[in-house]
Design brief:
two-stranded antiparallel sheet; three-stranded antiparallel beta sheet; 5 strands; 185 residues
C-alpha cells in the first residue's frame, strides 16, 4: 500500500512539473505575439471593440456574421450541442435560412453559405467566408446606395487569405468589414 501511495505522489509531482512547463510555454508564447495574448483590439468612434469576438449587427446596412447560440456573450461561450439530426436544430436552421432569404431577396435561390445559418462551436466566431460576405453584397449596396462593385472591392480588400497560402480558408472579419464599410464615401 505504501508503494502505491509513493508512486501516486511521484506521478503527481511529475505531472505538475510537466503541465507547469506547458502552461509557461503557452503563456510566454502568447506574450511575444503582436497582441500579447490580449485579443485584437479595434477602436471605432471612441469605442473599444475586440475583433476576435463575434459581434451582433442587426441593421440591414451592415454585414451580418454567424448566428450565436450564446447571444454573443463572451463570458459564456458555447454551442447549442444539438446534432444535425435534431428536429429542433433543423427547425432553427430552416428559420434562419428563411429569414436570410427574406432579408436578401435579390439573391433568389442562390446557395446560402452555411456559416450564415449555423452557429459556431463557441457561438462567438468573428469571421465569415468570402462567399458569406458576397451573399450579402447586393443588399448592402442597395441599402447604402453604393455600387455592388464598390462592395465587392471592399470585401476583396478585407478578405484574409489562408496562412502561407494553403493553411485554412479565406475569411472576412465582420467587425473590420463593417468599420471599413462605414468609412466608404
Amino acid at each position: 500500500m505504501k508503494n502505491h501511495i509513493v508512486s501516486a505522489f511521484r506521478l503527481t509531482l511529475v505531472m505538475l512539473v510537466v503541465t507547469g512547463i506547458y502552461l509557461g510555454v503557452v503563456y510566454g508564447g502568447s506574450k511575444i505575439l503582436p497582441d500579447r495574448g490580449n485579443g485584437e483590439i479595434v477602436y471605432n468612434k471612441g469605442q473599444k471593440l475586440y475583433a476576435n469576438i463575434g459581434q451582433e449587427f442587426k441593421s440591414e446596412k451592415y454585414f451580418h456574421g454567424r448566428p450565436s447560440s450564446v447571444n454573443y456573450n463572451a463570458a459564456g461561450s458555447g454551442g447549442s450541442n444539438k446534432g444535425p439530426s435534431n428536429e429542433e436544430y433543423l427547425e432553427t436552421v430552416q428559420k434562419r435560412i428563411d429569414t436570410l432569404k427574406m432579408k436578401n431577396p435579390e439573391m433568389g435561390n442562390a446557395k446560402v453559405p452555411v456559416e450564415l445559418v449555423t452557429a459556431s462551436g463557441s457561438g462567438l466566431d468573428p469571421d465569415i467566408s468570402e462567399e458569406g460576405a458576397l451573399y450579402q453584397a447586393k443588399r448592402i449596396a442597395k441599402v447604402r446606395n453604393l455600387s455592388e462593385e464598390q462592395i465587392r472591392n471592399l470585401i476583396n480588400n478585407q478578405t484574409e487569405k489562408p496562412f502561407l497560402g494553403i493553411l485554412g480558408p479565406s475569411k472576412v472579419n465582420v467587425l473590420k468589414l463593417n468599420i471599413a464599410l462605414d468609412q466608404l464615401k
